[in-house]
Write a structure and sequence with these properties.
This protein has 17 helices and 23 strands. Helix 8 packs across helix 12. The N terminus is likely disordered.
Length: about 525
């Protein structure tokens, strides 16, 4: 739907139709005809040229279809409206993304408001060749002050999330994706399989986890923000949403048991110790503990009325978590199975699991180091690496640092980092992620800084730098890459799997998988021999 007619006799200027816009905005809508029109009007005032973007609206079976309302609008950009029977937000957004024609897709909600530079700010975060997923900020509409406590709590929570993601050395992750404000390459979305339409909630974080596993880089863009109001006023519906999130987060955790950040049982370990008995009560006796939940919420409302906002939000958090865990318990099906899930998280995801994770990581590192140095993993080869290899010692200290970080002991992480640098001559930033079997053939002089991400079985041959060129971000090095002596890899670039970086090369651009980078600045050529070496 590219043209629309207004009043009889009115002349509606034709909308420019870009053969292939750079950006596609996808908005799912349901029973919000007024709000979607408000948002479309704000898109008409964007600083990004109208020919550079399109908007795809998917009406998810609204009782009063939105298409007749949108046909009356005079807009300077391409607008396409699709209508489907009610199938849920995930299905509607998926349909919109598949229909999108732009290389970059931006998803937002129909109840959001945007500033005039919103689209331009998102698009600027997607330079040619990048595989970024950009999570924008969500700020509360000033009118949120008139909303019930539980909706104001959402705004407070969004502010806390934004604060945790802000800062030059902070890095967003897949489990933090939310569809209220996110953009990504359409190609990456399709390759990952899109939203899981079987999920009634949490389909956004589940997609984010798959995109990150596929090698996408996540960024938080506070300035590319939306304003979020709300038309939710029912406390009972809010509780039902909390329950549903507990159900569907459990399913996400089953799909991704290697990602503890999506496990609903983490709340039993991470929330304030004073709240944990209440959370345990919701799991052990879901129905009998409901009066406790209502008492906590009543206390939160009294604190709110008395101007004790922080206490009010803390009480609301406990109320939400209790109902959320009832949902997780319902999905588990029995108390025994629920306790089994709790035990699994304790052993693999939470602080009690750090020792097990440490042992598993050290084993994998020792085996890979022996394979790299000796070509096999016999007992003598592994023992010699553990006892004599500086490359393995670097990793051993790194795994201890990761355990300290997981246990919430930042001073331990810092002390081990100092020892790593002083004794072994390699400097690894406190937020660096190292995969299994990373091997420092010669560690002296190597620096891996910031929040660089290094995949499995990567080899560094000494005096290497993995850092930033202009404080614009750090590299991602995929699996099985070899980095020659003296090589420099700089900036928010991706070094594709199985690539080889030549000695003393300075790499400032993405390197495709199975490539060779040589020279200053590096030029890229295809590997002729990709057999295992």
């Amino acid at each position: 739907m590219n043209a629309a007619s207004g009043a009889p006799g009115a002349v509606v200027p034709p909308r420019p139709v870009a053969p292939r816009p750079r950006l596609s905005v996808v908005v799912a809508t349901y029973n919000r005809a007024d709000l979607i029109q408000r948002l479309l009007a704000q898109f008409a005032r964007q600083t990004l040229a109208p020919s550079q973007f399109e908007v795809v609206v998917v009406d998810d079976g609204s009782k009063e279809p939105v298409a007749p309302h949108l046909e009356k609008l005079s807009l300077p950009y391409t607008l396409r409206v699709q209508t489907q029977a009610n199938a849920g937000a995930a299905a509607a957004r998926h349909r919109g993304v598949i229909a999108a024609q732009g290389d970059i897709v931006l998803i937002t909600d129909d109840d959001m408001q945007v500033a005039e530079d919103f689209l331009a700010l998102h698009l600027a975060r997607h330079p040619v060749g990048s595989r970024n997923v950009v999570i924008g900020g969500i700020r509360p509409d000033p009118a949120i002050s008139d909303m019930p406590l539980f909706e104001r709590w959402y705004a407070w929570l969004n502010n806390r999330i934004a604060a945790s993601l802000s800062g030059p050395k902070r890095r967003a992750h897949g489990w933090q994706l939310f569809t209220g404000n996110v953009s990504f390459r359409r190609e990456d979305y399709v390759a990952a399989g899109g939203f899981d339409k079987t999920l009634g909630q949490s389909e956004d974080i589940e997609l984010g986890v798959r995109l990150e596993k596929a090698g996408c880089r996540f960024e938080f863009a506070a300035q590319a923000h939306v304003l979020h109001g709300s038309d939710h006023t029912s406390y009972e519906k809010w509780l039902k949403r909390a329950h549903r999130y507990g159900v569907f987060d459990s399913r996400v955790a089953d799909k991704h048991p290697d990602v503890p950040q999506v496990d609903p049982w983490r709340f039993l370990f991470e929330m304030n110790p004073l709240a944990r008995p209440l959370l345990a009560a919701a799991v052990l006796a879901p129905e009998a503990s409901r009066p406790l939940t209502e008492a906590v919420m009543a206390a939160a409302r009294r604190a709110d009325a008395a101007g004790q906002t922080k206490l009010a939000f803390m009480g609301t958090s406990v109320t939400y978590a209790m109902e959320y865990l009832r949902g997780a318990r319902a999905e588990a099906g029995s108390l025994g199975r629920a306790l089994g899930h709790v035990g699994r998280y304790a052993l693999t995801g939470g602080k009690p699991g750090q020792v097990l994770k440490l042992a598993q990581a050290l084993k994998a590192d020792a085996l890979e180091a022996a394979r790299a140095e000796h070509g096999h993993t016999g007992v003598k080869a592994v023992a010699s690496m553990v006892l004599m290899s500086d490359g393995f010692r670097v990793l051993a200290l790194q795994r201890l640092r990761e355990a300290a970080r997981g246990l919430g002991v930042p001073l331990g992480n810092h002390a081990l980092r100092v020892a790593q640098t002083a004794l072994l001559g390699v400097e690894i930033g406190k937020d660096v992620e190292l995969g299994e079997g990373v091997y420092f053939v010669h560690s002296l002089g190597t620096v891996v800084g910031g929040d660089a991400k290094v995949g499995d079985r990567v080899r560094f041959y000494g005096n290497n730098t993995v850092g930033t060129a202009k404080d614009d971000g750090y590299p991602v090095i995929e699996d099985d890459v070899w980095v020659g002596a003296g090589a420099r890899i700089l900036g928010p670039i991706t070094i594709g799997a199985r690539s080889r970086i030549g000695a003393n090369a300075v790499v400032l651009q993405d390197v495709p998988p199975d490539s060779v980078a040589v020279g200053i600045p590096a030029r890229i050529i295809a590997r002729r021999d990709t057999d295992d070496e």
